[in-house]
Amino acid sequence: MALNNLTLKAASLYDEWIKDADPRVDGYPLMSSPLPQTVIIGAYIYFVTHLGPKFMENRKPFDLRQIMVFYNFGVVALSIYMTYEFLMSGWATGYSFRCDIVDYSRSPMALRMVRACWLYYFSKFIELLDTVFFVLRKKNAQVTFLHVFHHSIMPWTWWFGVKFAPGGLGTFHGMLNCIVHIIMYTYYGICSLGPAYHKYLWWKKHMTTIQLIQFILVTIHIEQIYFMENCPYQYPIFMFIIWLYGFLFLILFLHFWYHAYTKGHRPPKYLKNGVSNGISKNKAE
User: Fold this and answer.
1) Exactly one of 147, 150, 151, 221 is catalytic; which is it?
2) How many CA atoms lie within 13 A of 258 on its CB side?
3) How far is CA 118 from CA 57, 115, 270, 278, in A?
4) Is 150 one of the catalytic residues?
5) How is the chain split into domains, by residue range?
6) Res 164: pLDDT
7) In whole angstroms, what is the distance from residue 166 CA to residue 106 CA?
8) Which residue, among 224, 137, 100, 123, has the nearest Cα to 177 in the 3D structure?
9) What is the C-alpha separation between 84 and 178, in angstroms, rounded?
10) pLDDT tens, residue by residue, 84-116
11) How far is it, in rounded angstroms, from Cα 87 to Cα 178?
């Protein structure tokens, strides 16, 4: 009886909470509740940390070079498209880069931003293949805690953003991340083409700098809300989550930079493959 009452109370709280969701995302895949994505992310974590390595234990690494060329340049194309959509639905067509609130209307521009947000959210599931490829190629050293954490937390938290606030200043870091991914996955794509193309990767040393700039910009942009007077952004809690995420990874990348470039030492094991997508020479080998 107590368990039934607890279940009913939880269901009632969920119904009360979800009633404030944006009705414009009704019908979009994975948006009915956080449960489907939680199952997918849970399966991903289990596969890349247990099932996959166990499956590959007595097998030779898969040769995925051709698949990875298609995948990496496919992500580049998708990132270019998402960047364009973010720009045209707000960031280049009226947003101030300061107190930009969510437009909940059904205007063409507002609906375009909703679609851009959902597509960015969905792209995070495509990027789970990064880790799957590591496992199938037996690059298990690259499946670090921070790598898996990053790929897991991004889609899970973005579900709430898309469900309740698809637009406004909370989407800046998504657009910026798309721009960074254009550069990163171009690098990975060229790597995938083979050693003959590696001479074009002279800019590898700048990859960590690009990541640092990304997190600095995200942190500075989102901090503005705490210094603005009367910014009526609808979900301030999302701003804190974005700030916390950006600040955390800024510190981790600075730590990586310090060990790898300033001291000239090998970075700590949990950072040696980078944090976000793993800036590693072995990603496409």
Assistant:
1) 150
2) 7
3) 37, 5, 31, 25
4) yes
5) 34-271
6) 97
7) 12
8) 123
9) 10
10) 999 999 999 999 999 999 999 999 999 999 999
11) 11
